[in-house]
Amino acid sequence: MSIQALLFQTMCCASTISPRDEYSLVEALKQGKVSKPVIAWVSGTCAKLFKSEVQFGHAGAKSGGDLESAQAKNKALEEAGAIVPTSFEGLEPAIKIAFQKLVEDGVILPTQEIVPPSVPEDLSSAIKSGKVRAPTHIVSTICDDRGEEPTYAGVAMSTIIEKDFGVGDVISLLWFKRSLPRYCTKFIEMCILLCADHGPCVSGAHNTIVTSRAGKDLVSCLVSGLLTIGPRFGGAIDDAARYFKDANDRKLSPYEFVESMKGKGIRVPGIGHRIKSRDNRDKRVELLQQYARSHFPSVKYMEYAVIVETYTLSKASNLVLNVDGCIGSLFLDLLASCAMFSQQEIDEIIEIGYLNGLFVLARSIGLIGHTFDQRRLKQPLYRHPWEDVLYSKYV
Amino acid sequence: MSIQALLFQTMCCASTISPRDEYSLVEALKQGKVSKPVIAWVSGTCAKLFKSEVQFGHAGAKSGGDLESAQAKNKALEEAGAIVPTSFEGLEPAIKIAFQKLVEDGVILPTQEIVPPSVPEDLSSAIKSGKVRAPTHIVSTICDDRGEEPTYAGVAMSTIIEKDFGVGDVISLLWFKRSLPRYCTKFIEMCILLCADHGPCVSGAHNTIVTSRAGKDLVSCLVSGLLTIGPRFGGAIDDAARYFKDANDRKLSPYEFVESMKGKGIRVPGIGHRIKSRDNRDKRVELLQQYARSHFPSVKYMEYAVIVETYTLSKASNLVLNVDGCIGSLFLDLLASCAMFSQQEIDEIIEIGYLNGLFVLARSIGLIGHTFDQRRLKQPLYRHPWEDVLYSKYV
Amino acid sequence: MSIQALLFQTMCCASTISPRDEYSLVEALKQGKVSKPVIAWVSGTCAKLFKSEVQFGHAGAKSGGDLESAQAKNKALEEAGAIVPTSFEGLEPAIKIAFQKLVEDGVILPTQEIVPPSVPEDLSSAIKSGKVRAPTHIVSTICDDRGEEPTYAGVAMSTIIEKDFGVGDVISLLWFKRSLPRYCTKFIEMCILLCADHGPCVSGAHNTIVTSRAGKDLVSCLVSGLLTIGPRFGGAIDDAARYFKDANDRKLSPYEFVESMKGKGIRVPGIGHRIKSRDNRDKRVELLQQYARSHFPSVKYMEYAVIVETYTLSKASNLVLNVDGCIGSLFLDLLASCAMFSQQEIDEIIEIGYLNGLFVLARSIGLIGHTFDQRRLKQPLYRHPWEDVLYSKYV
Amino acid sequence: MSIQALLFQTMCCASTISPRDEYSLVEALKQGKVSKPVIAWVSGTCAKLFKSEVQFGHAGAKSGGDLESAQAKNKALEEAGAIVPTSFEGLEPAIKIAFQKLVEDGVILPTQEIVPPSVPEDLSSAIKSGKVRAPTHIVSTICDDRGEEPTYAGVAMSTIIEKDFGVGDVISLLWFKRSLPRYCTKFIEMCILLCADHGPCVSGAHNTIVTSRAGKDLVSCLVSGLLTIGPRFGGAIDDAARYFKDANDRKLSPYEFVESMKGKGIRVPGIGHRIKSRDNRDKRVELLQQYARSHFPSVKYMEYAVIVETYTLSKASNLVLNVDGCIGSLFLDLLASCAMFSQQEIDEIIEIGYLNGLFVLARSIGLIGHTFDQRRLKQPLYRHPWEDVLYSKYV
């Protein structure tokens, strides 16, 4: 048996029903297009009882003119032949009466009542009462946002403000899950300052500039640039840390280290500068070294890098320890000297690539800056000049 | 009361325990560093009973030499003073005995047994038995992967192969949730062919090339290029469709349409070509028009675009209907003429930006091609030339 | 000597000058805030000679009322004391006269004229005349967009339409730089159909759905999903091709291959199915095999995969050759059997990861579909349920 | 005339020539496959004169055994019939003699010498000498990397370290192009602390976690999460700033502001909290307000937000000013009170969305943290549970 009666009640939450759909039904009834009995109720009539505009159901039910008020609609439906109760409470009896009439008239045959299935309990209450346990699919350890305010590794946000934490301290909590001493977090901030930008010509800034000039939103611009960070762009600090750690831990002499790298065809990362040289030292390196020497308990990895530099300088005067090498080696000293990490944890940190994370975060400052810069300059769509491309078929 | 006994059993699943950790404990016991009684059992001893290498617990338990075998470990632990049962089954009694001895010696005071909480039922079985209903957090309608093979809008994958569907047909199922006639899906494929690439100089290809030369993986390269697609790059087809639809539906004359756009300072999208002109028509446009005229039930939107072109050509000879305008208007004809979409659905498709999706998908072919191209050519890291940048402080 | 005279001509292109800035100057002159002589000319006065609205300079110069017309502005400036010539041509003489007056009055001392530097030639004309050669920074080989219409590996776009090329043929041109026979490009299309989607629960679709529900644009949604494709999601076809190629080329027996994989702790990719088994074969695999056997010159790699399957089925009945393994091995047959690639080129194609490209492209169809789906369903911001997360401090 | 002689000299830079290619030629000559005269010279023979290993040309030329030494190759070529001079200098005469012999033997006919085209000058020297000017395609103003060390808005990196700048100061230089007072840059740092993370359940962290569990690299994980930031996730601070600024500048009373927002169906951003209320104030808000009141010259926008809060609290007790609203309004105060921005610049900063940039940068700390967290926890591929999805056909 198919449904023989059209039940019709405007639902408040049914977003797809436009405020004039009821009149389509009125029209259809008038034109005899609907042969089944229609039982209808348009909610929202008590809106009339309020002075100010109260929102009932969808916008149409409340706004303005008589024509669109719920009362007017109910009246129109009734006049068109629909069964319309006098209140919402009358809807159920009206359905019952209409049904029985259809049965009496022989239009429909009543079917056997089925036993309704018992309503299952809601998951959340079942969990709360301890009847059911739901498996969790995600494990997370760094930030808990369930309480009054989020905590970073157990420290409440307001404590962070109160205790005058810096950006480095928050990184310490969210990445290392512990509160590193201030000389460490200060060093992390220094790394961010030094890696924040390197001009518009490097891969990352260039792609961000191109995307910004394509009129895209900030995140797209930033992301398009970030995606170039990897082995060839931005990887030098990470590589310096890895190779210096490996060489130092295996107690290689600078000669053995440098020559074994050469043998593998790998340039020693962290060594060499375009302009700087033995007699024209990089001030940034000097400042970092100075800071570390007066604040770090030990700078053995940096000292190792320095004696490697002594060796490479004997080969060419521009093979100085550069900023990447200095940061890379000092980061090792930070991990090793603060006595808050096991050897295994240090290995994991280096393997996972925390230093890469530091570079990515720092350079985001520059990439966001380039996005704003291009937008402010109102630069048009970038198109690479044809003349700069070698179109080739034979490669 | 704190725990007075160290219970120790090598767990198979504890990924962080290295195969040599047991010996660290042996060492600690020998050196008297552990004062609590240790009850230990290293699992995996039956490994010896098998000829071939069976995997028990972690790798260390099975591999090679006596030193690392479970038996050797148990022996070493026992010799160092640990309580080691003779089999796994003996672990529980051993714990009991050790506990009672500690009580008797007065080292620990037994506490009152607490009633263990009843174990809650597992969610999946509770759902299956109808006791609990869990809310779903995601609604999805296009592809069902729960059965023997995934279905696209209800059509099984194997049917798609069997019926010789094309790429356009699959797009039809996954984007439009219905099987459009072949003339439509063929037209969708034509659009993909024509939008697949436009050389290395446009924003998208350029960023992809830069990222590929930074040595990044395929997805990063593709994505870095895709992110430039938007209002200024790749948006012309979408814009053409929107404006032609609006103008045609509002029954604007070509004069009214073009001049009102001019008034708003917007160039008519889909009109104009760098080289092509009245007397040097774009062959691609002609081929698309020809295809549509012989396969589409109606091409009213395209005809509208053609009379707009007649008007713009009267202004300048290169203001021809270009490929973007032709695709944009014909896509409207596709939607309107196949009689499978309500007016509301068509509006939604245009608003959501399905044509943009078509461009994005098509151009992905080219961007992936550029990634492969650069990798094959072994191009080094790209750095934009300094000389091409105006470094300014005064803007 | 600092500049002693304010020259003022409203520039058409100066986007930052608002149409009312001239009146600010008028005001400043009236209030005696400007002591230097002002020579001014507001362009756009001939606008009055035209009936229709012609656009001169910025919008303000043309539009509407007297107040903002260029004439009105010039008049106001003159009345405020500025030197205003009667036409643009009069600007230069006016400057000269004002300058000479300042000299005569002793306000300024004329300085020695410097020889202006010779104007360098423009790069493009210098290149055209052969005087200069500029290095190109980019090499590209797959698509040339400089002519009347772009070409894909030398084939004009219109030819592609004319010859009824399919999506697979365009991929062939843009990725392989050659026109592969139709049986190959048809197979490529089949791969796209089968990889287009796999439901809403896999990593890629899930992230796309979350991003779409965050209200982001199509490209962001697609990209957020694509970024999950890698070793664990989507990598099985690629892996299957690599391992089957290596095993077959090294002439390993199925036993040697499977057991050596097991020894390395790697599951054989392309083998195994959740539901399918020896007696309930995967129809998709059968269809692909059937197609290849009747169209490919040779299917040696697939046959190798089949005998591997025979061996694995002897271990467990669900260790069947699955769709990934079937596609992976047949793609090797495609490359090897069409006689259009050198052995070195095939190795390069496998190493670069063309199959991964195919998966990425195919799945983009699904991810775009999921974006549209969520948008159509008007889904709100997704927040992962707290209950599904194990918040832990001790890991 | 085609080339009648094969010239052969191993090029150092030709990366595609393998060290054994010369022997292939030897083989071909011996087998009579090459009929043209071959003049050959393998460079690198002086390698023998050095004791240590000096790198000449490709690796093969220097390394090891006699077989692969340049001398051995030259000898083999000569024995196979090639014309091999005794040194590199002999190559040119050898070519001449071979050519003349071919002419004398009548094998080739000498053709008229053509005048070689004059070699164009190199672009870089032509620019340096002032002969040519090349247009620049990119404008950039925030960071200059051409000198000895990069400068941020004119400030050298080493100065930044020396003067003990913080992260906020670098943001000030790269985003605002000026050195804001420390109370401003300190406030910027506070915003970063408070926005750094908000747990694993929000869109951004969730997508990052999913991507990390797919085994992808750090940048892909970060990016996949960042792409969810937009109108619905992370946009509240930006929106709060925009609406508060607009309302305050238009001098709307709190009643007018709140009710007009309601009229438009927009929730007032920056107002409302899940837990916090009139009697349980948000400590973070209090701390920020306290800081601003004692450090900012003026806090008029924040005060406006506070009187808006007074009005909303009269409606419901949890409609408090939340952290987003507090940061948003105080950022306006920062811009307005430091007297370093014109009104137009402030409007531009708000329009461009600098606050969004701050959120994106801050949250990157958290997203990178989640990436590390999942990697450290060695979590497997995430698959959303089927049970959580409503698969529907009827929407």
Description:
Four copies of one chain form a homotetramer. The first copy, chain A, is mainly alpha-helical and about 400 residues long. The first copy, chain A, contains 17 helices and nine strands. Chain A has helices at about 20-30, 60, 70-80, 90-105, 125-130, 155-160, 165-175, 180-195, 205-215, 220-225, 235-250, 255-265, 285-295, 300-315, 325-335, 345-350, 355-375; strands spanning about 5-10, 40, 120, 130-135, 140, 145, 150, 155, 390. In chain A, the strands form two sheets. Chain A has a three-stranded antiparallel beta sheet with strand order 6-7-8. Chain A has a two-stranded parallel sheet with strand order 1-2. In chain A, helix 7 (about 165-175) crosses helix 8 (about 180-195) and helix 14 (about 300-315) runs antiparallel to helix 15 (about 325-335). The two termini of chain A are about 70 Å apart. Chains in contact: A-B, A-C, A-D, B-C, B-D, C-D. At the A-D interface, strand 5, strand 6, helix 6, helix 7 and helix 8 of A face strand 5, strand 6, helix 6, helix 7 and helix 8 of D.
Task: Quickly list its features.
homotetramer; 395 residues; mainly alpha; 7% strand; disordered N terminus
Number of strands of chain A: 9
- Share of helical residues of chain A: 40-55%
Largest sheet of chain A: 3 strands, antiparallel
Rough shape of chain A?
A: elongated
Task: Tell me the strand percentage band of chain A.
Answer: 5-15%
SSE topology string of chain A: EHEHHHEHEEEEEHHHHHHHHHHHHE
* Main interface by residue count: A-D, 83 and 82 residues
The oligomerization state is: homotetramer
Rg of chain A from C-alpha positions?
A: 36 Å
Mean pLDDT of chain A: 86
Distinct helical segment count of chain A: 17
